[in-house]
Structures are given as C-alpha cells and as structure tokens.
Amino acid sequence: MDLIAVIEPLVTSPLLYPVLAVLCSLDGVLPMIPSEPAVLAAGVFSHTGTPNVLLVIAATAVGVFIGDHLAYGLSRSVLGPRLIGRSSRIGGAVAAAGRQLDRRAGQLIITSRFVPGGRAAMNFACGMARLPLSRFSPASAIAALVWAAYTAGLGFVGGAAFVEDPLLGLAVGLSLSLALGSIVHLVRRRSPRRKVRPQGPADPGRADTGGTAGPIGLSTAPRPCGTARGAP
Predict the structure, then answer these.
(1) Which of 6, 109, 126, 218 is the most exposed place for a label (fewest CB within 10 A)?
(2) Cα–Cα distances in Å, from 148 out to 25, 142, 220?
(3) How confident is the model at residue 3 (pLDDT cuts 50, 70, 90)?
(4) What residues contact residue 142 under an 8 Å CB cut-off, 6+ apart?
(5) Cis peptide before 224 (omega within 30 of 0)
(6) Domain residue extents for the chain
(7) pLDDT tens digits along 16-51
(8) pTM of the full structure
(9) Which residues pair with 213 in a beta bridge?
(10) How far is residue 26's CA from residue 34's CA, in Å, rounded to a whole number?
C-alpha cells in the first residue's frame, strides 16, 4: 500500500501527460527507459477517470512518434554507426532488420513495437538503410498509436479487474505484455528462415551490390531499400 501511495499522486497529476511523452521519446533511443511500465501504470489508474485514458494514449503515441524519428535521424548521422557498433547485440539486430526492410518495412516497424528492444533496433535499421521518410513516418504513426492504445488499454483492463489491488493489475499487465512480445519475437525469427531457406546460394550474390559494408554489416551503397520510388 505504501508503494501505491507513492505512485498514485504521480499518475493523477496533470504533469503525467508530458512526462509520458518525454519517457516514450527517450525510449526510442535508450531502450532501458521504463516507458512501458509508466504507460501501464497510467492505464491501471485511468479506470477511475483520472488520468484520462484517451489523453494517456495520445501523449504516449506522440512521444513514441517523436522518439522513433530521433533514433531514425541519429542513425543517419555520422554518430549512428559508431553508437550502434559499440554493441554487438544491437548491431546484429539492426543488421538483421535491415535485410528485411525492402519488402516488409511497414509490417516490421509496427510489430517491432511489441518485441523487447525491437523498437530501437528497427528505428536505427530504417535510418541506416536510408528508408525514405515517406515510408517510415506513416508506419511509425500507426505503430505509435497501436502500441499506445494496446499498452494503456492493457493497464486499464488490469486496473478494472483488480480494483482492490492496482499493483496486481500492473503486474498482470506487464506479464501479458512480455508474453506477447515473446510470441511476436518467436514468430518473426521463424518466418524469415522459411522464406530464405529455398533461395539457397542466391542470397550471397544478392548481398553483393557493389556497396561498402558498414560497421555492423548494413550496406551503405547508393541503392538502399526504399530508394526505388515505385516500391510499395
């Protein structure tokens, strides 16, 4: 109950909405920022009417959209490859995402929101692969709204189901979110393998387009994904 007494004034304050927007913006570049628990907590308490769940969703979506573009812009700068190259784990995730952006950019941008750490990796991949903003921004907007509604809604349902124990509602919401993230991650890992396997030796030849490889394996050739204006 003491923890609830600490959390409740924060989530019922008018400052909650800009705080959520800032946290979700920073989370686009720094995945360790606890934006998801904050949105879930706001959703848990919003079943009482304060905070307003629609404003929670709006503030979260705006923050996510801004954070996506911060990461996208950073990865296109000279600092992007250096920052990403410091972590082999993030570098590998960015490289893996970049190889799939040609045909499934929108789908990947949206589903990456539900994979732990997937959002930052996908945003960096889109920037380094020079995915045009005309393709990145609409997908980012849809992904931001979907994730905000899902996360705040999950908290709202948890708060309504566990009125007497909001912390339990928050714990259930986090568990369900992690479970969905794990499922999406497994599906995404298995799906590309099924598509790539029949191509056999064609993949290495396809990778050699005459460009120079970046520090994490992404091509920096002038023919990155999305530069063909007629591409869907």
Answers:
(1) 6
(2) 12, 10, 33
(3) low
(4) 106, 110
(5) no
(6) 2-199
(7) 999 999 999 998 888 888 888 889 888 888 888 889
(8) 0.70
(9) 219
(10) 10
